[in-house]
Design goal:
It is a single chain. Helix content is 42%, strand content 21%. By secondary structure, it is of the alpha+beta class. It has a single domain, classed as Ribosomal protein L7/L12, C-terminal domain/Adaptor protein ClpS (Ribosomal Protein L30, Chain: A), CATH 3.30.1390.10. The protein has a three-stranded antiparallel sheet with strand order 2-1-3. Helix 1 packs across helix 2.
């Protein structure tokens, strides 16, 4: 008995990398600079110097990029920022955009 079996060769498979998303923190007139630096260090694992540079970018340009992640991780980071801001009484917001 002969069976027709279709074999897919590995080099014929088109592997797609997951889309990446940039996470931004947005400027507001109420969140303290120290709080923004703390968020960048604790949620985005930035050094103090990196966090300070991003915070200044947010202050000067109304938003600053915190990192580039897969959709699920970016979404989680945005939610963590909002949760931490709420817990501390700040209106700090984060957004994500497809790269």
């Amino acid at each position: 008995m002969a069976t027709n079996t279709k074999l897919e060769l590995l080099d014929e498979l088109a592997l797609k990398h997951p889309k990446k998303y940039k996470v931004f923190i947005l400027n507001d007139d109420y969140s303290s600079m120290d709080f923004v630096i703390d968020v960048l260090m604790s949620i985005f694992h930035k050094t103090y110097e990196e966090a300070e540079a991003i915070m200044l970018e947010v202050h000067k340009k109304d938003r600053g990029i915190c990192g580039v992640y897969t959709h699920e991780i970016a979404e989680t980071k945005v939610m963590q920022v909002h949760k931490r801001a709420r817990e501390n009484g700040f209106p700090l917001k984060a957004t994500m955009e497809e790269e």
